[in-house]
Amino acid sequence: MEAAWPSRRGGVTMDAIGGQMDTITDMSTRLIRKEVDEALWAFVDRQRPGLLAISDELGPMVSALDALLSGGKRLRPAFCYWGWRGAGGPAGAPGIVTAAASLELLQASALIHDDVMDSSDTRRGQPSAHRRFEAMHREQGWPGAAAPFGAGAAILLGDLCLAWSSEMYESAALDAAGLGRGRAVYDLMRTEVMAGQYLDMLEGTRDTGTVETALRVVEYKSAKYTVERPLHLGAALAGGSTEVIESLSAYGRPLGVAFQLRDDVLGVFGDPAETGKPAGDDLREGKRTVLIALTLERADAAAAAAVRRRLGDPALDDAGVAGLRAIIEETGGLAACEAMIDRYAAEAAAALDAAPLTAEAREALGELTIAATARRV
Amino acid sequence: MEAAWPSRRGGVTMDAIGGQMDTITDMSTRLIRKEVDEALWAFVDRQRPGLLAISDELGPMVSALDALLSGGKRLRPAFCYWGWRGAGGPAGAPGIVTAAASLELLQASALIHDDVMDSSDTRRGQPSAHRRFEAMHREQGWPGAAAPFGAGAAILLGDLCLAWSSEMYESAALDAAGLGRGRAVYDLMRTEVMAGQYLDMLEGTRDTGTVETALRVVEYKSAKYTVERPLHLGAALAGGSTEVIESLSAYGRPLGVAFQLRDDVLGVFGDPAETGKPAGDDLREGKRTVLIALTLERADAAAAAAVRRRLGDPALDDAGVAGLRAIIEETGGLAACEAMIDRYAAEAAAALDAAPLTAEAREALGELTIAATARRV
User: Fold this and answer.
1) According to a count of CB atoms within 10 Å of the terminal CB, is the N or C end of chain A lower?
2) Mind telling me which Gene3D superfamilies this protein's record contains (chains A, B) (predicted)?
């Protein structure tokens, strides 16, 4: 799962990176959400007529994409943009926002396909794409099975988003040399996230996960993909030096891990209003997260058996979710995961302090660090 | 389904485009298969180490891709190449073969996802990608269900192929202006084929198909995608004039329809050694092809009911397949489909005669016309 972003942040505690307390009053500036949204909708609006000209029966594809793109926190575009700025790229260039926003289409593709693979019902507080198409099939009373139709349509919509992400990237008003440098990062990132998702599936299916193997999945499936590569993409587009690129890795890698671990904790303990998914959904889906691996490492035989029995049970009810939560807390799994988040976030913050970036980018990335990893209570 | 290409062609009758008899002795030259294979394997060989460096557990992804890419007739790259040559592009440019060969990765993605959506067991004479991963899951004795693992892994492999197709295209040693012109065609083609596949699913699920609606699916899902757009891509890369592009449409559109109708006939009546699929597989999958629509148009109530009852029955046995074949022949559906193929192929041949292309390209495309549409008995 991935947490939905609250539309208005009332305050985020800073204790994840050092025990201090502070309040972020205007994260939206750092997330450049308005600019990213404008670029994203401008692209989708340009594609819409072409699709509907093929057939007006493609309307449901467009609606499903609109619904998905209405949510999401635009974290990857923000990291891309601040990678650009950090490497000295100018603030006013419109091309960078287009290139950055294209990452949302890549992410949309990954989410749509992920939800098919996990049979997830919900995404960003709404029905997942395949459930949406499934419901349409039922409402229309078409013959045949609704579920394969829903899955098939969602596979195609995810393919379309993947194709459109590169189309949008290439449409960015940036110089050809920059786009070429960025393309190498984009290519790498796509291969990494797909490889990471395969390893994640392996991890989930084999039931032999350790903290180490779960962390390897986190590295490729989400840490590099969510933070390090978007930063690199921005820096590459701006022609950042090797030193800048390396400093962004030193910051982005641990931050990406901390972000995913926070996401895993939210997936079990988070408020559905924030995560956009029913409470306990990650447990029902049987995700073999680092949090679960830390719990199993600490659990006695009876507790471990209870985790293994309940994890991945699609019929897990509220009491079952509460029972699993209790085990994750009582074994010390949760505390160990929070401690890991703190360590990785602190490592990221230290690397950021030492990074040869522009002052404004360093400040913005400092705020994103907190936003991506802080406890939300 | 899509027919596998015989590794060695013993002779193809020309009667599909005018009743003459002739033999094509060296189709492989026109298909530039050797050159396309070299470019394709060079690209995959460059990607392999990066994937395995992430984890050697990604080996099965690589093997599944290798197996799929070993088959296929490389028809799209051939049309792209001859579109280039037809528009005056030089014979010796290595970049054009790379760009053309990238279409095989796009096609691999489409086939892998199509097989998941159709639950197909076989592709190009081998197990489909999802069945391959499913078998691996079973052989390893992993806990959990094998089928969702197989489908999930295949969805990811298809995504990887789609990402790699654009990566390979962009890697072609061609000038930036040409690649930009070609990219516009590539983008359009991807959107069209995904839209066409969605319309195909709608067609299959609603059971209200007519010849007209089946032909619309053919247009986007396969005619444009297989012939017209690959020709356009090559011509755009070569900087072909509007006149050349339009003449390639006049030739490619009817040829693409004729090609798909031939493929549909082969899907029902073809030799499994040639199609790479068990006899009657298209009938078991319930494909609502033009051939089926032509049959239903001509069938009396009893025959129509028999078609509707048997079509899409996964348990359809040899007798059931033979029964459906008999109805398709006896109603005149097959003859009507053959007549349509002849008409479209003749239209393509006439357009080719009038097209302002180089003589060599016209000759090569003439041979590809026959190869793509001729009866194979």
Assistant:
1) C
2) Farnesyl Diphosphate Synthase
A138 touches chain B (CB under 8 A): no
Would you say A39 and A97 are in contact if contact means Cβ atoms under 8 Å apart? yes
Please check whether residue B344 is in contact with residue B16, taking contact to mean a CB–CB distance below 8 angstroms.
no
The pLDDT tens digits of the residues spanning A278-298 come to 888 889 888 889 999 999 999
Residue A253 lies inside a defined structural domain of this protein: yes
B223 touches chain A (CB under 8 A): no
- Which of the 8 DSSP states describes residue A221? I
Interchain proximity B205–A156, CB inside 8 Å: no
Do the domain assignments include residue A130? no
The reply to whether residue B156 touches residue A109, judged by beta carbons under 8 angstroms, is: no
Mean pLDDT of chain B: 89
Residue A190 contacts by C-beta under 8 Å, 6 or more apart in sequence?
Answer: A106, B160, B163, B167
Residue of B153, B162, B187 lying closest to A162 (CB–CB):
B162
Q: B-chain residues within 8 Å CB-CB of A152?
A: 117, 201
- pLDDT confidence of residue B1: 45
User: What is the ipTM metric for this complex?
Assistant: 0.90
Is any Cβ of chain B less than 8 angstroms from the Cβ of A199?
A: yes
- Dump the DSSP string for B224-257: IIIIIHHHHHHHHHTT--HHHHHHHHHHHHHHHH
Separation in Å, CA of A198 to nearest CA in chain B: 6
Shortest Cα–Cα distance, A348 to chain B (Å): 23
**For residue A35, is it within any domain?**
no
Best A198, A199, A206, A308 residue to mutate vs chain B (most B CBs within 10 Å): A198
- In tens, the pLDDT along B276-289 reads 888 888 898 888 89
- Sequential DSSP letters for B132-185: HHHHHHHHHT-SS-HHHHHHHHHHHHHHHHHHHHHHHHHTSSS-HHHHHHHHHH
Q: Do B137 and A109 touch (CB under 8 A)?
A: no
Give B101 or B277, the one with higher predicted confidence.
B101
Closest-approach residue (CA) in chain A for B163: A190
Q: What is the CATH number of the domain that holds A264?
A: 1.10.600.10
What is the chain B residue with the closest CA to A57? B199
If you ran DSSP here, which 8-state letter would residue A155 be given? H
Report yes or no on B34 lying in a domain: no
State the average pLDDT over residues B357-368.
94
Average pLDDT over every residue of A146-172: 97
Per-residue pLDDT, A27: 58
CA A35 to chain B, closest CA, distance in angstroms equals 24
Domain that holds residue A179: 175-377
Strand partners, B317: none
The single-letter code of the amino acid at A373 is T
Count of domains forming chain A: 1
> How many Å apart are CA A194 and CA A197, to the nearest integer?
5
* Total residues belonging to chain B: 377
